[in-house]
């Protein structure tokens, strides 16, 4: 029974691995491999709405606020070590980050410390350059250690009066994951099924388990080799039958 | 520093992956196997000996050229969180504008199909196939009835789309402020100032020799021209793409131009390329596409009527018909903000004047398959940016904005005058830039201009030249009182010399 399951599961795995799709999948795989090497895990966070800082009364003063503050808390995760922050920029020119960490035992209250000061996202705040880019900030770019982060405060600045809104989107925070080198292992392989009674199996004519397992190992090696040799070069020409019989182009 | 190392290793991995399946990879492998038989290769230092062998036999140069070509053409791998559309075009509103423009083109194409009751694609009957094969080298002689066809769009339609491009997050208020755009383009893209342009185009400066200026008959050739030609021959002997690209910034001697361009674009005449072209040709013969009729119409309207290019009519058909069936062109859509229509038609729909991209190349290359490859490389590197909406610095939107900014900054009186009489300068110069000046300049001048496009790997020089032309004819333009009169002043550019104009505008204008 177990061997039958093994064969079926590997069939599925082979089907998925031997004929990879092109371009986007291969780049993602590289990143996935790199990520698993770095092994980062997303930390669930609660992002409070942006608060604009403005001098004077918001309703009467003309002009738009140039400073926004976004508070991020981590209610479910305890103090953690921050590895990486990723986000998509939306017309923010400069970013500062302040962090509140678990302080040393003799300090009564936790202080806010600036860990990133005026990080430039848009080289020229009046132009579109960098306005909608995806950005990653890493631990080594911060001014202080990020060992036991409790809360973060992101201070966004956009000095140009030309933009109607500015913010950061798709904020994500990552911490160090467990150091597992072979994260490519599927779950069911690392949690083997409990030992089953072989008595029932002997009644059916099944192949020799050792032979099957060695063949399966060879198949696995072949797939690993093919996966390692994956390229993005085109095979060349192929024609799809009936592809020239069309009358109208679709809009979607 | 850690980040830079990571980026570098990512780039290297990306390029290795791209080159791994290519012909060059298998050739290098074969060469390495063959080299094992040589006595110089010893087992103890196998790796170093093979590397040395590659260096001596010139294969390392070929690999260098391939890597350089990959770096130049393809943008670096994107941030892992960014979707593929972000690589094509990072700004969302531009992607949307490009999408709706494409829908309009497709609607127009579909309505033409239904009006004329012609299928988009059909398989040719055998008799017709034989006929076409016989006539392959003289397709210009048959006169199909194309009166009902009209070009899908013309550059001025595209200009209207660009004029209406708006960023929803931008202050487009009625009151004039610091950044009001007085020109037609209303999006705040980054364009270079003239000081940045001077740095960028430093090889065009007054104290550097240029072909196009320093090879005039009055200048003795010993001063510059002979040395430059000798240098060019050396570059070709070395077969180094990067060196050729640097060399061609000062212009290319006519005799060496064809080879230099092929070296820079990394196009070599391998038997596989010839085979690929033949296969495309057989695709043309077997199937008839509606796009073919559009190509015919375009060639008849533009290139055939041009004094310089009408002789190349047959070549143009041979290249463009194959181009419309080439699947490898689809690869460039990864970094082009446009998308191909959802069908088997190769995604480029020709517009009025499209054939003018190919026509000047016919002066350099006489073999259809080499001509085809050069055109395809030029298209996927440069020309596609001239008719798709994107924020790339060489994209047509940035070029238009650069032109208008240069004119406003350095010829404010002229700009104001033209604006007052209702002759916005971009309306006149747009058609020059969209066609990369092909058909407007004399051919030798055009080829000198395209030398610089290849040398600097950027189309910004088109905007600078457009501004320089306006500067040159400024005195006449100040006296006109209508758009038609302004167009008349700028109608004929065939007598202009490109390089002196560029040099004066960039380096000799008092600002």
UniProtKB/TrEMBL annotation, chain A:
It comes from the Eukaryota. The keyword Cell inner membrane does not apply. One of its GO terms (cellular component) is nucleoplasm. InterPro entries: Nicolin-1. Keywords: Signal. Residues 1-15 form the signal peptide. PANTHER family: NICOLIN 1, NICOLIN-1. This is Nicolin 1, tubulin polyglutamylase complex subunit. It comes from Vombatus ursinus.
From TrEMBL, chain B:
It comes from the Eukaryota. Gene3D superfamilies: Ypt/Rab-GAP domain of gyp1p, domain 3. Pfam families: RabGAP-TBC. Residues 251-457 form the Rab-GAP TBC domain. PANTHER family: TBC1 DOMAIN FAMILY MEMBER 19. This is TBC1 domain family member 19. It comes from Vombatus ursinus. The gene is TBC1D19.
């Amino acid at each position: 029974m177990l061997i039958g399951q093994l064969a079926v599961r590997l069939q599925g795995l082979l089907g998925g691995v031997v004929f990879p799709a092109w371009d986007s999948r291969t780049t993602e795989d590289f990143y996935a491999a790199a990520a698993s090497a770095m092994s980062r895990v997303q930390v669930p966070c609660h992002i409070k709405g942006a608060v604009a800082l403005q001098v004077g009364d918001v309703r009467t003063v003309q002009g738009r606020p140039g400073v926004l503050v976004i508070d991020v808390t981590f209610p479910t995760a305890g103090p953690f070590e921050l590895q990486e922050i990723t986000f998509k920029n939306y017309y923010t020119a400069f970013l500062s980050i302040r962090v509140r960490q678990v302080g040393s035992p003799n300090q009564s209250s936790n202080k806010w410390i600036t860990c990133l000061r005026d990080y430039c996202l848009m080289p020229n705040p009046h132009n579109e350059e960098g306005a909608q880019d995806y950005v990653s900030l890493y631990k080594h770019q911060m001014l202080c250690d990020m060992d036991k982060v409790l809360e973060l405060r992101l201070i966004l600045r956009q000095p140009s009066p030309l933009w109607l809104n500015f913010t950061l989107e798709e904020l994500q925070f990552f911490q160090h994951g467990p150091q597992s080198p072979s994260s490519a292992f599927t779950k069911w392989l690392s949690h083997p099924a409990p030992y089953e009674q072989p008595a029932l199996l002997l009644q059916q004519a099944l192949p020799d388990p050792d032979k099957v397992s060695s063949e399966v190992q060879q198949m696995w090696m072949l797939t690993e080799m093919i996966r390692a040799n994956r390229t993005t070069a085109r095979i060349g020409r192929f024609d799809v039958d009936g592809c020239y019989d069309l009358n109208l182009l679709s809009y979607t | 520093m850690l980040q830079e190392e990571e980026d570098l290793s990512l780039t290297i991995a990306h390029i290795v992956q791209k080159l791994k399946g290519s012909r060059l990879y298998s050739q290098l492998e074969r060469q390495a196997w063959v080299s094992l038989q040589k006595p110089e290769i010893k087992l103890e230092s196998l790796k170093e000996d093979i590397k040395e062998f590659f260096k001596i036999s010139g294969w390392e140069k070929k690999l260098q050229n391939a890597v350089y070509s990959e770096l130049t053409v393809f943008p670096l791998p994107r941030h892992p969180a960014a979707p593929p559309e972000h690589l094509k075009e990072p700004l969302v509103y531009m992607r949307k504008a490009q999408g709706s423009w494409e829908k309009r083109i497709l609607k127009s194409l579909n309505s033409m199909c239904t009006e004329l009751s012609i299928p988009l694609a059909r398989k040719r009957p055998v008799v017709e196939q034989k006929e076409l094969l016989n006539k392959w080298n003289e397709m210009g002689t048959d006169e199909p009835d194309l009166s009902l066809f009209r070009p899908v769009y013309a550059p001025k339609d595209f200009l209207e789309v660009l004029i209406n491009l708006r960023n929803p997050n931008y202050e487009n208020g009625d009151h004039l402020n610091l950044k009001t755009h007085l020109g037609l383009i209303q999006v705040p893209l980054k364009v270079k100032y003239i000081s940045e342009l001077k740095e960028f185009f430093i090889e065009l400066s007054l104290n550097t020799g240029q072909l196009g200026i320093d090879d005039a008959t009055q200048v003795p050739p010993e001063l510059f021209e002979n040395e430059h030609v000798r240098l060019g021959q050396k570059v070709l002997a070395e077969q180094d793409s990067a060196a050729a690209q640097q060399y061609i910034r000062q212009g290319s001697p006519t005799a060496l131009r064809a080879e230099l361009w092929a070296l820079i674009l990394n196009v070599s005449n391998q038997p596989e390329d010839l085979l690929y072209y033949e296969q495309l040709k057989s695709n043309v013969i077997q199937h008839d596409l509606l796009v073919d009729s559009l190509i015919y119409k375009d060639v008849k309207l533009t290139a055939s009527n041009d004094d310089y290019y009408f002789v190349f009519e047959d070549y143009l058909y041979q290249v463009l018909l194959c181009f419309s069936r080439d699947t490898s062109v689809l690869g460039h859509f990864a970094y082009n903000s446009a998308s191909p229509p959802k069908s088997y038609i190769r995604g480029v729909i020709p517009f009025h004047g499209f054939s003018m991209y190919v026509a000047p190349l016919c002066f350099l290359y006489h073999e259809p398959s080499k001509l085809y490859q050069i055109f395809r490389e030029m298209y996927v590197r440069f020309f596609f940016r001239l008719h798709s909406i994107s924020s790339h610095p060489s994209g047509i939107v940035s070029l238009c904005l650069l032109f208008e900014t240069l004119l406003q900054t350095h010829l404010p009186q002229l700009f104001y005058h033209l604006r007052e009489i209702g002759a916005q300068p971009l309306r006149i110069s747009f058609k020059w830039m969209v066609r990369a000046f092909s058909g407007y300049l004399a051919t030798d001048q055009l080829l000198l201009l395209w030398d610089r496009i290849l040398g600097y790997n950027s189309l910004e020089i088109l905007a600078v030249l457009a501004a320089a032309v306006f500067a040159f004819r400024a005195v006449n333009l100040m006296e006109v009182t209508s758009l038609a009169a302004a167009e008349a002043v700028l109608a004929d550019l065939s007598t202009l010399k490109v390089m002196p104009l560029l040099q004066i505008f960039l380096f000799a204008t008092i600002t």
